[in-house]
Amino acid sequence: MTAEPTVTNPRVDMTDSAARVIARQLARQHLTGGGLRIAIKAGGCSGFAYTFAFEAAPRDTDHVFTGADGAQVFVDPRSLRLLDGTVLDFDEQNLMATSFTLRNPHATSTCGCGSSFSA
Questions:
Q1: Which residues is 42 bridged to in the sheet?
Q2: Which terminal CB of the chain, N or C, has fewer other CB atoms within 10 Å?
Q3: Which domains does the chain have, with CATH numbers?
Q4: pLDDT tens, the chain, 119 aa long
């Protein structure tokens, strides 16, 4: 088994809006000190799919990124290769918005629903 390539100075940023939504959801789920896990899995109509889950704590190997008011995002090393430099957002002004959006510099194309991409 080969080791995952190391990402130097990794970054996953979040807008203030995304940070507020993360904090609200963590409070609703009583996950004080927790964060939003973002991961990449093979699949989706474009080759890779994003997965999201609220978790109580990061795993030992996770990279932890902190935004406004201490909101945290957890990313595993394998997913970080395709998430480094990504900006997480959530449009709170759009009443139809139901999910986070990602501006991923590694995505060469995305599907119509925005939940999968190719790199």
A1: 48
A2: N
A3: 12-118 (2.60.300.12)
A4: 445 556 678 999 999 999 999 999 999 999 999 999 999 988 766 678 889 999 999 999 999 999 998 999 999 999 999 999 999 999 877 766 678 888 988 876 565 555 555 55
